[in-house]
Amino acid sequence: MKKIILFCGLLVCGQSSVVFAGEKSSITTLFNKEAVTFTVQVLSAGKPLKGAFVKVVSLVGNITIGAGTTDEGGKALIAIPTYDKQLISIQVSHNMFRENRLDDIALENGKTYGIQLKSRSESADKVTAESSEKVNKLEGKTVKNEEKESQYRNDAEKYAVEKERAAASNEQLKKEREETEKSASEKQSAADKQKSEAEKTKEEAERIKASEAVRLNEESRKREAEIKQRQEEEEERSKALAAAKLESAKESEERARKEAQEKQKDQEKEKNEAEKRADEQEKKARDEKESAEEKAKNAKDKADKEKKAKEDEERKAEREEDAKKEAEKAEKDAEKDLKEAEKEEKEAAEKKEAADALKDKLADLDEEQKEIDDARKELKKDQKEIDNKMKKGKKLDKLKKAQEKLNEKNAELDERQEKLDQKRKKAIKKSK
What we know:
Elements: H1 2-15, E1 34-44, E2 47-48, E3 53-58, E4 63-69, E5 75-83, E6 88-94, E7 97-105, E8 112-116, H2 124-162, H3 171-239, H4 247-392, H5 396-431
Parallel strand pairs: 1-8
Antiparallel strand pairs: 1-2, 1-5, 3-4, 3-6, 6-7
Helix pairs in contact: 2-4, 3-4, 4-5
């Protein structure tokens, strides 16, 4: 029995100090716990939010370690009797608002943490204010509709006069358009032929580059899986060393949840009453607006008929003018395509040359990758041997030092691998 206790003590001391370079790994210390008291300030639209449920969750094991409910000032004072400096998440919820959270927080005694909640639906005050604004807008539209009725009558008279002035000569525009379209067609044919030849050269260069990229991505995924496996193995070793007393935190969470639910029910009732009053006021304003709109509509219909007749004449000229502009644009586009085709042909040749150079460069880097992979296999054998010896519980001090040296070698290989990956990325980027 004494041997087992001695082995566990050495294992705690040894593993709690191990951190692999280049990997995200941490081991929670089991000592130096202390009490911490802090405040969570909850706001919505810049104002304090009453009745919000605040929960504090440890990111080690995803366990609730504290809870509370906000008061009239939107604040919840939370005390945690034993805090181990671990990262936590502050999670805030309310039936009438979208849940929000602060993650990866290291708590500080006496500090205030602020968080904003966005409304799922309007509060009672907001419903009343928005209703008043809608009523004012509807009343304003009623007055505007009366003004529009007078304006539409004036427009009808104006359109009738302008209709007679809208005719224009279209024959010359048509002739110019046809000549421009012919010139554009000839230039476009020349550009298309040159672009086709450039595209073939580009496709060959892209094929070479894509083949190399697929191979590099597969190797990268394999290395990432190995690093992740080492992290998971290290986390499993650390989880066996930690335990927490959670019963009091769960009771505090339940009390805070019930208190928040009662306060939120009162707020929902107040909001529903405000919505009912707002609906009645909006209905009255809508009825008055619809009456004014009907009068304005009759006057508008008459003005629209005169306006349509005028616009029909104007559109005849606009269509021919647009056709001419389109032909001129097509001619310019064809000239532009011809220049771009020449440019693409040159770029395609350059990309083909760069792809060939990339292939040669990556072949050199593959040799260095093979050296790293061979060294990694040897370290895995050493790690397996150390793990087997530690299970026997003998010569733990010596094994601890051997583990530290092995970790250093892993870190050195990770650093070499990262530099090699950077060389690959740099080579690929340079070839673009």
